[in-house]
Amino acid sequence: MAARESHESSSMSKFSYHVYMSFRYKDIGRTFADHLYTDLLNGGFRTFRKEDELEEGHQNLSNTIQASRIGIVIFSENYASSEWCLDELVSILERWRSVNLSILPIFYNMDPSDVRKQKGSFEEPFTRYEDRDKTLTGERKNKWIEKVKQWKIALKEIADLGGMVSQNQADGYESKFIKEIVKEVGRKLSRTVLDVALYPIGLDSRIKEIDSWLQDGSAEVGILTISGMGGIGKTTIAKTAYNLNFDKFSGSSFLADVRKASEHHNGLVRLQRQLLSNILGKRVEKIHNLDSGIIKIQEAVCCRKVLLVLDDVDDIDQLNSVLAMKDWFYPGSKIIITTRNEHLLRSDISCKNYRVKIFDRKESLQLFSLHAFKQDHPPDNYIDLSRRVVIKCGGIPLALKVLGSSLCERGIDIWESALKKLEAIPDHEILKKLRISYDCLQDDHDQNMFLDIVCFFVGKKKQFAVTILDGCGFYSVVGIQNLIERCLITVENDGKLKIHQLILDMGREIIRHESPWLPGKRSRVWRHKDSYNVLMEYTGTGRIEGLVLDMQMLKDFKSNTTSFQEFRFDAFSRMKKLRILKLSYAHVLGSYDDFPEEVKWIYWNGFQLKSIPTDFPLESLVALEMKRTRLEQVWKGIKYLEFLKILDLSHSHGLKTTPDFIGLPNLESLILKDCVKLVYLHESVVYLDVLTFLNLRDCRNLKKFPKKFGNLKSLEKLIISGCTELITSVSELGKLESLTVLHADNVTLGQPLSANNLITPWRSFLKSWFSTPGNYPESVRFSLASLSHSLLNISLSNCNLHDESISVDLSSLSSLQFLNLSENPFYGLPQSIINLSTLQDLWLDACKNLKILPQLPSSITKLKAIDCTSLESIMNLPNLLDSLYLDVDGCEKLSEVQGLFKLEPIENFSEELINILGDFNLNSIQELEVELYNKMSHTKKRLSVQGLFEFDILSTYLPGSEVSNSFNYVTKGSLVLSFNISPAPKTKIIGLNICVVYARSSERRFRLWGESSHSGSWYTFYIKVVNVTKGLKWVYGPTFIGIPGPKEDMTYLSHWKLGNELEIGDEVNVSVVGWGLTFQMKLLGVNLVYCEKQEEIKSDFESYMLPSYQVGGMAYFFSHPEYFASKNRSDNNSVLRSILVENLFEDRVETAGSSNLDEEESDFDFDDDEYADEEELEEILQWTSD
C-alpha cells in the first residue's frame, strides 16, 4: 500500500506549475496580466510568469513550460514586437503538440484574425522582421527566415484554437473577464479549492516563504507555525498555501477554527473525524473517543504523504494528540498551524515559525479602496478621508475590510462622523476578534499588566517598564514574554515596547467598559480630558490605579490660557490604590496629608516649586521623573528612599545641586540631561553601588566629577556629550570596569595641570601645545587605549583628538563594536585598528584632515566617512562586496577605493593602456579640463583629463566630439549598434572600444534637473553590451560622469576588456540606456580591439562575472553607487532587481532624441513617457539622497 501511495504522490507532483503565463510585460505586465496572475494564485493555481524567474535562460524556460499543465497566452497590442514572446509561443506549441499541453489563448483588446494573419498592430513588427534578412548573409540569413516562418505558423495555429476575447465576454468588464478565465482554468484542471479573500492583496509576497518550505523536498515531517495578532490574515495565508499545494500530497486536510471547535462537547473528536474523512476521501462515521481517533489517524497518515493545516490553535492541549503521533507521519508530510501564540510549541519540538507582517500603506489603501469603492484607489474627494481611515487600521486586513465595507456608498458627512466615533469608540466587530488574545491570557496577572502597558508604557524602554512594573508587584519579565508570545506587544530593535494601534484600542476599550460613563470609577484613566474632569470635579474613586494628564494635550486649555492649570491635592484623597501618576504642566496646591502613599511612579513634567516639599510622600517610589521643572535643589537634607531606582531631572535649567545620594542605596539610573546650571555632582554619588546608567548630556557648566569616580564599579553607560567645561581624569574613566557605553562628544578629555598644580581649563592649556605638533606632555595626553577595556560603544565626536591621542595600540579594546571619531583633526588611524576583531561600525564623518585609511578589521559592516574632504583613497576594505555598507558622501577628493575604482590623470596610465582607448594625441589633451560628477560621493570637481579604471573597464571623458570619427561602427539615430565579430588574421580579440557623444539636453532642462538639490540623480547614463549568441548581458554605469559645458559636446571613451567573452561569429549589441534628463545623447560608436600579442594587458580587476553584481542568470549590472545604495535598503532589493531588468536589461530600441533642442524650450512634460522609466529607476536607485 505504501508503495502504491508513494507512486501516486510522485505522479501528482511531476508538474511544478498549474499555469504558465505568456504575455508582453511592457503592455500589460502591471495591469491585466498582474490582476489575472493574482486571481489565479488566489484560486489556488500555481502560476508561472517569467519575471518571477529572471535568472531563467531559454533552456530552463523550456523546462518550465514542460512542467506546466496549462499555458495561457495573452495577445496584446505589442505582443508581436517582442521576439522573446514569439520564441516563447513556439516553445509552448511544441509542448502542446508533443504531450497535449492544454492551451488557453486570451485576446486582450485584440481581434483574433489580426493575430492569425499578422494584421493590425502585428503587421509592422513582421514587416520589420522580414526586412531584417536583407542585412544578413549565408547561414545566419537562412536561420532568420526559418525563425520568422515558425512565428507565423505558430500565430495562425494558436489563433485557430479559438480562446477568450476580452471585448466579446463579461460585457467588457475586465474584472468579470478575469474571473471567467479563472473559472475556465479550473474547469480544464478539475480543481476544488478553499475560498479565500475576495481581494487577495499582498498574498503573493506573504506566501512565498511558506510555499518554498512546502516544496523543499525534505524527507522530514515538517511543522510550521503562522503567527500574528488577530485579523492580520493568518488563516487567509494558510488557505492560499493549502490551495497551491494540496494536490502535491497524497492526502490533505484543512481544519478550521480549532480553538472554537475544541470548546464544544466532543469538539476534538469531531475534528478527528473531519481529518480522517479528508485524508481517506470518504466519510468517516464512528470515532468513539480521542484515543480511538488517534489510532485511526495513525493508520491513515503512516502510509501517505499528507498536508495538514490546523487553523486558530490557542492551547498546546489542542495539539498534543497530533504532535504525539508526529513520528507516525509519512516522510515528507507537512503540518501548518495558525496561532496567536508565537511560542505555542515547546522548545524541544523542531518547527519553523512565520510571523505575518502588517500591510504597508500602499497595500492598505488598495485593500480598503476595493471594499469601500470597488476599485483599487479612492476617488479624489475621498483621498484624505481614506488615508485617515487607513492610518487608523494600522495595516490590519480585517480592520481595512470591516471599515471599508461599512463606509461603502456612504457620503462624506457619514465618513466624517464615523471617523470621530472611531476616535472615541473603536469598531465592535474588530475589537471582538482582537480581544480573543487578551481573554486567552493565563491569568489576571498578565491581563492587568497588559492594561498597565497599554495605558502607560507604550514607547517606553522594556527595562524601564520592567523596573516599575516589578515595583508594582508584577512578575514582569515572564509576563511581558507571555504578552509577546500572544502577539499583543512587541519589543523593537531599540528596546522599546510597541503595541499595534488596534490592540491598544482594544485594551483601553476593556478599561472603558469598567464604567462607560464615569471615568472616576475605572481602574486606569488615560484620556487627558477624563483625567482633567476627575481632578476638577473630585470624582476620583478607590478604583483608580493610574492617571495621566498632560494639559498641553487639551485643546480648550491651550486656546484659553498659557498659565499652568491649578488643581488641589484633595482631588487625590480617595485614590488609595493609585500606583502611577503622570502629570504635565499641572500645578497642584494644598496639603499632602491625604495624598496616596503607595505611588510607585511619579512623572511630573513642569513641576513648579523650587524644591520638593519635605512632607511629600515619596517613600514608596520606584521611579521619580521631574523634567523641565523650576527645581533649584531636589529636596532639603537627606531623603531615605530605599525603593527608588530611577531619578530623572532632565531639562531642569535652574537645578544647581544634586541631592545627597546616601539615602538612595538602590538607585540604578540617574538622568540629569541639560541641567545647565549644575556645576558639581554630590560626592556621595560614588557610593551608589548599583548605579548602571548616568546621563549628564549637555550639562555645559559641569566642572568635574567627584573624587574616586572610578569606584562606580556597576556603571555600564556614561553619557557626558556636550559637557564642554568638564575636566575628567582619563585614569578614573579607565577604572570603570563595567563600562560598556561611553558617549563624550564635544568634550575634551584629560586632566592638565598648571604651574601651581591647579586644574585649568583644558582648551586654554593645550592651546600652546597644539601650535607645535608633537608637544604633548605625558601627564595630559589622552589615548583611546587608556579607556575601560570592557567598552562596546565609544563616541568621541568633536573631541579635538590629534594623531597622538589615537596612534596607540588599540588591542586592549578587544570588545569594541561601535566607534565614532567624527569631526576630529587627526590625519590617520593607527594600524592597530585591525586588531579590533569585533568592531562593526566605524564613523569618521567630517574628519577634514583624514587622507587615507589603514586596513580595517574583517568584522566591519558599516563605514561612514561623510564629508571627509581630504580623503583621497581607501585601501584594503574587508567584506567589500559582501556585508559592508560604505558611505563616502561629500568626499570630494576621493579618487580610489581599492577593489572598486581608481581615478587618476590619464598621463599616469601606461602608454599601452592609453593607446588601446583610441588614436588621440596625449599632449593635445594634457591642458584640457573636464568637470566630473562622482556618483558615490555626490560631489563635482573640475580636473585635468582623467582615466577611470573599474570592472576591467578603462574610460575617460574628453571635451568635444572629434575622437568619434575614428570608430568603425557609428550611429546617430537609434543608440543601438548590432554587428557580428569577423575574423582578423594573426590577431586576438581583446575587447571593445565604445564612444558616446552627448550634450546638455537643453539649458532649461539642465537648470531644472541638473542643478536641483538632488542633481546627481540626473547625471547618469548606462552602457549596455549584449553577446546575443551567448546570452550574456552587461550594463555599466560609470562611477564618474563628465558634465558638458553650455553648448558643448562631451565624449565618453571606454575600453571593455571582454576578450574572454567574445568569439569570432558572435552577434553583439551595444546601446546607451537609462540616461538622465540633463543629457541628450547624440552619437554612439564602437570598435573591436584586436591584439597581435598572445598575452593580454594586465589589470587590477579579474572578471566580468562578479556574483555581487549579478541580477540574473547571465545578466550583470556594474554600478558601485547603486550597489551600496541597495545595501542600505535591503527591503527593496527585489524591487530594484525588477526595475533594473525592466528598464536596463530588456531588449528595446533607445532613441537619441532631437539634436537641436532649443535653449528656450519651455513646453515639456515632466511625466513624459520618454523619461518615465528613467524617473522610476532613479527613484529606486537614488536611495542615498533621501
UniProtKB/TrEMBL annotation:
Family matches, as InterPro entries: Apaf_helical, Disease_R_plants, LRR_dom_sf, NB-ARC, P-loop_NTPase, TIR_dom, Toll_tir_struct_dom_sf, WHD_ROQ1-like
Occurrences of domain TIR (ranges): 15-189
A matching Pfam family: TIR
Domain of life: Eukaryota
SMART domains on file: TIR (SM00255)
Keywords from the UniProt entry: Leucine-rich repeat, Repeat
Name of the protein this chain belongs to: TIR domain-containing protein
Lineage: Eukaryota, Viridiplantae, Streptophyta, Embryophyta, Tracheophyta
